[in-house]
UniProtKB/TrEMBL annotation:
Belongs to the YciI family. This is YCII-related protein. Pfam families: YCII (PF03795). InterPro entries: Dimeric_a/b-barrel, YCII. It comes from the Bacteria. Residues 1-81 form the YCII-related domain.
Amino acid sequence: MFIVSLNYTSTIEEIDMHITEHLMHLDKQYSLGNFIASGRKEPRTGGFILATVESKVELESILSNYPFYREKLAEFVVTEFIPTKTSPELSFLLDA
């Protein structure tokens, strides 16, 4: 599992110009089972994505097509995360 932290490097106006494509990219990755959660930071300076892909190489390939990455609107920090304990509702993450 991976945590992707996005930090915007452009204006919110530039970010908003790509929101529709951003949402389409997220929807595709959710439908493929690659992403399990995402959301914006508060204040709105970026966001987070939880990804359950097999490798960092696979995730980097997915992110390379992401509009905020492609258009250099944000910097991305990818951290591998290995869940070892969860609530019962999230126990499926232990197998991810």
